[in-house]
Amino acid sequence: MYIHEAIYDIDDLVHENLHIHTEFSTCANREMTIDNILEAAKKTQLKMIALTDHHHPPKVGIIDRTEEWFKNRKKRKNNEPVTYLEKVEFLRSKLEGQELPFKVLVGAELSSYDIGKFSDTDEENAALDYRLYSCNHYHLKYWVQPEDRSLNSYVNRCFENIEALLKAKRADCIAHPFDGRYLMKRIEDDLGEDVCKFSAAIKDEQIAKAMELSKLSQTAWELNIPVVLRDPDFHRRFFNIGREIGVVFNIGMDAHKLVAIDSAAHADELKKILL
Ligand SMILES: [Zn+2]
Ligand SMILES: [Zn+2]
Questions:
Q1: I need a labelling partner for 253 at 20 to 30 A (CA). Which of 48, 108, 130, 157 fits?
Q2: What are the tens digits of pLDDT across the range 30-74?
């Protein structure tokens, strides 16, 4: 598990990028090999990065497509399914013996796909340095939707999901907590083209209550830079409520390509939006 102290100085916060997808994630560019990610990070002032590939429930299976990994898989005699733990071992073996000017956390973007339902086993959870959970990947087929497909019921569902996750004490951070983009196809009558309508429907008290709970479970909230840039009004509110309550924010670029490794490139935009 990983948590740092509460930091509200943006210049300090952007020394981390705790949300990077490798080529294991099918949504990431092929250029996102471990070696390329490390080379790109060496050219920045980053002090800490986290590798966070998607983790889906067992019925969906792990999604992997690394060339080197496939070669290793072919060596398996009895065609046993590959486990996520083996993948974690593979990532660690790639990092072994490397002299790097920053720390690398081997993590995952885990799925809290229904209230109190998590994609990972306790053993997998314990094997990770950084447990970043998505609570709102509503665009995925397996994600459980509320029965009533209205804006308000999705707002309530988001908080029910986050609160169950916090109480389960298995998360280091919550990824892109209130990104309305994943709801576009679910409640398009309410949102239309404006995904910020989702976060605008969230009340300060709801955020504050969940944030109080996050202090007890020592869970951070992600400042997901692409989402912050898309929805500045909400994130100014979100950041300032968090600062008042004293929660921990982690920076994540949700990097799917090498140019998105460096969080510091957005420091000035973040300051204008959040402060
Ligand atoms: Zn995500
Ligand atoms: Zn992601």
A1: 157
A2: 999 999 999 999 999 999 999 999 999 887 766 666 656 666 666
The answer to whether the CB of 263 falls within 8 A of the CB of 16 is: yes
How far is ligand 2, taken at its centre, from the CA of residue 53, in Å? 7
pTM attached to this predicted model: 0.94
Q: List the CATH code of the domain at 10-274.
A: 3.20.20.140
Angle at 137 between CA 133 and CA 138, to 5 degrees: 145
d(CA 132, ligand 2 centre) in Å = 9
Handedness of CA 182, 185, 187, 191 (dihedral sign): positive
Crossing angle between the packed helical segments 84-95 and 34-42, to the nearest 10 degrees: 40
Q: How far is the CA of 77 from the centre of ligand 1 (A)?
A: 34
Domain residue spans of the chain: 10-274
pLDDT recorded at residue 90: 86
Local structure of 107: helix, strand or coil: strand
Where would I find the H helices in the chain? 10-13, 34-42, 67-74, 84-95, 122-127, 151-168, 188-191, 196-200, 204-217, 225-230, 232-245, 267-274
CA 223 / ligand 1 centre spacing (Å): 12
Tens digits of residue pLDDT in 203-245: 999 999 999 999 999 999 999 999 999 999 999 999 999 999 9
Find the 133 Cα to ligand 1 centroid distance in Å. 8
